[in-house]
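Researcher: If only I could read backbone structure tokens as easily as an amino acid sequence. Walk me, if you will, through where the backbone shape changes along the chain. I have put the entry right below:
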Amino acid sequence: MGSQQFGHDLPTINRICEEIKAAHDLGLEICMVVGGGNIFRGMNAAEAGMERASADYMGMLATVMNALALQNALEHMGIDTRVLSAITMNEVSEPFVRRRAIRHLERGRIVICAAGTGNPFFTTDTAAALRAIELGCEALLKGTQVDGVYSADPKKDSSATRYDELTYKKVLENDLKVMDGSAIALARENNLPIIVFSLHEEDSLKQVIQGKGISTIIK
């Protein structure tokens, strides 16, 4: 959503997709899981009184809109993509089928996974960990608002310190708000490294993939 309060900022989407293209051009197989917080946040709606399951389904639908926006931008850059949704929407996406997703990756396409896990009560973080494990990804990269994991919110606490490396255990024990506990536990059980970096820094995704730049590694 860029500097807007909600919705889609096309220059921001294009910049993010340029970062993804640069990583793809390195010869990597890339699977993306996109959230929907710029349109609708299910947890916020549930806290305001909406039934949690309905709120979560609405949030999942928002992720499909974001997936289509990313697909449009990437294909304008000449990159073949496929949107695979955990909620069946044949007119705009393919259903998520693990073997189909793997074939798309093998053929050089970027796979964009939408609608989370397809189930309420699970976050996009958990969906990302699940898809990464299902598809045999070497790492889970989380592009976020800050350049790694901090001991506290750096926007609110100037004394917060950034970690270069963390264990899954420490993240869970210290309740560090990098991803929800289910996602961290799933990654730990399957030895999936998590790399947290800022999406706001130029070339950040490519830098992280090449072992450069600033990030926090959880393993």
Q: What stands out?
A: DSSP finds eight helices and ten strands in the chain. The two ends are 31 Å apart (CA to CA). Residues 171 and 184 are 8 Å apart (CA to CA).
